[in-house]
Amino acid sequence: MIIAERYHDISCGHRVVGHEGKCRFLHGHNYRIHFTITASKLDPVGRVLDFSIIKSHLCEWLEHHFDHKFLMWEQDELLEQLLEIQKESLVVVPFNPTAENIAKYLVEVVGPNQLADTTAKLISCKVEETSKCSASYSID
Ligand SMILES: [Zn+2]
Predict the structure, then answer these.
(1) CB within 5 A of ion ligand 1: which residues?
(2) Of 55, 53, 34, 35, nearest in space to 118 by CA
(3) Tens digit of pLDDT for each residue in 54-84?
(4) Which CATH class is domain 3-138?
(5) Alpha-helix residue ranges (DSSP H) falling in 8-134
(6) Interior angle at CA 24, CA 107 and CA 35, nearest 5
(7) CA spacing 20 to 30 A to 89: which of 7, 25, 72, 76?
(8) Measured between alpha carbons, how far is residue 122 from residues 5, 10, 110, 136 in Å?
(9) Cα separation of 24 and 2, whole Å?
(10) CA atoms of 10 and 64, how far apart (whole Å)
């Protein structure tokens, strides 16, 4: 299999509902998000997908939707209070925003939507919360 990879850095807040330690508090990370793309065949030039298209379709999606925002699980008990304080900074997501769930959402929901007009497929995503800690999600 031939793959193409590109990463993008964003700053984003979150809290992990049910976390036993300090990750239950409102906090944020300088996330580094790695995208892995494949295609059934290379294009006539010899590419999985031009890197600029990965940027415009996936990296810029992160920039517009997650960067400098706060990811909030739709079932978080603090949601209503935070919506009253600063609604425009919140991104209400259908998952508890762990690195694992962010990676899964990007691969299962964002990738298919954003790459629908291409011949490529997002097959894996790695979400780094720090240079030491990351989670990945992959499909075949
Ligand atoms: Zn965190």
Answers:
(1) 23
(2) 53
(3) 999 999 999 999 999 999 999 999 999 999 9
(4) alpha beta
(5) 51-54, 60-65, 79-86, 99-105, 111-114
(6) 20
(7) 7
(8) 10, 19, 9, 13
(9) 39
(10) 10
68 catalytically annotated: yes
Percent of the chain with pLDDT over 70: 100
Q: Exactly one of 5, 19, 68, 74 is catalytic; name it.
A: 68
Residue (of 58, 76, 79, 78) closest to 67 by Cα position: 58
Fill in the amino acid letter for 106: L
pLDDT of residue 140: 73
Burial tier of 101 (Cβ tally within 10 Å: 0-12, 13-18, 19+)? buried
Q: Where are the domains of the chain?
A: 3-138
Strand partners of residue 137: 125
CA 36 – ligand 1 centroid, Å: 23
The first and second tokens of residue 68, run together, are 């400098």
Separation between Cα atoms, residue 29 and residue 32, nearest integer Å: 9
Instruction: Write out the DSSP string of 50-70.
Output: -HHHHIIIIIHHHHHHTTTEE
